[in-house]
Amino acid sequence: MPEWLRDQPFALAVAILMGIVFCRAQATYWLGRLARAGVRRTRLSTYLEGARGNRATQLLDRYGLPAITLSFLTVGIQTAVNGSAGLLGITWIRYTIAMVPGCLAWALIYATVGFAALEAWFALAARSAYAPWAALALVAAIVVTVVVVRRRRRGQES
After folding, report:
1. Tens of pLDDT along the chain (158 residues)?
2. CA quadruple 118, 119, 123, 128: dihedral, nearest 10
3. How far apart are CA 50 and CA 126, in angstroms?
4. In 3-state terms, what secondary structure has residue 108?
5. Cα angle vertex 74, ends 71, 77, to 5°?
6. Three-state SS for 72?
7. Which of 8, 37, 87, 115 could form a Cys-Cys staple with 12, CB 3.0–4.6 A?
């Protein structure tokens, strides 16, 4: 965690991180909305505003909102999901309602273990170019093993 943030009380650190991710997510959403306005002036508008495009937007607006919330628990997908929400024209209020819990989860993760994990990653990378990737592969293997074992147990129970 950056030094200036580490010295803050936990609640203030979470609030600061929440504000940062909230502003970033909203900016990405609105960039998507601007891109949508630009696309409307091109031939692509027939796809975006046609029957299929409208149907897709309605489905995402209604059922795709959990994807927005869950995207904040990922690395790399979050920005694409937020921009896509704007590009597809998901209404601002529904987007924001789905975004806020994700922002809070992101802020809590980074205020607790997120920056420590990032610092550990860089420390490993300083020792070896392969060590952080090996550690990531090990964590992924553990997660996959746990998921497979749980699914097998559920299958045997039913």
Report:
1. 667 677 788 889 899 999 999 999 999 999 999 998 888 788 777 766 677 666 767 767 777 788 899 889 877 688 888 988 998 888 899 999 999 999 999 999 888 876 677 677 778 888 888 887 888 788 889 988 988 888 888 888 76
2. 10
3. 52
4. helix
5. 65
6. coil
7. 8
User: Which amino acid makes up residue 109?
Assistant: I
Q: How far apart are CA 79 and CA 72, in angstroms?
A: 9
Helical ranges in 40-130 per DSSP H: 45-48, 51-63, 65-71, 77-87, 92-109, 115-127
Q: Around Cβ 132, how many Cβ atoms within 10 Å? A: 17
Residue 76's CB: how many other CB atoms inside 10 A?
7
Q: Which of 75, 139, 64, 80 is nearest to 106 (CA)?
A: 75
Cα–Cα distances (Å) from 36 to 43, 88, 90, 126, in that order, read 12, 7, 11, 42
In angstroms, the CA 77 to CA 81 distance is 6
